[in-house]
Backbone:
């Protein structure tokens, strides 16, 4: 446990994804859950049995309020 440095906690996605997973590097723009289908931003239609979505990360440090006490 405890705090870790970035180098201790960061790993390439290829090392953490299961070998059987298919990583699609695109945005999902439409969902059809009753049909187990989605459409990506590039227009690709994808049928799936199981779907795992990663929402991604957007860093915006200007919105973080920090109080410094000395």
Residues:
């Amino acid at each position: 446990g405890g705090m870790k440095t970035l180098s201790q906690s960061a790993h390439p996605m290829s090392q953490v994804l299961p070998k059987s997973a298919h990583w699609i590097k695109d945005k999902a723009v439409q969902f059809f859950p009753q049909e187990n289908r989605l459409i990506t931003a590039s227009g690709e239609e994808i049928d799936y049995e199981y779907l795992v979505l990663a929402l991604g990360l957007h860093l915006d440090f200007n919105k973080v309020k920090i109080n410094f006490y000395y």
The longest helix spans residues 6-9. The chain has a mean pLDDT of 86. The chain is about 10% helix and 15% strand.
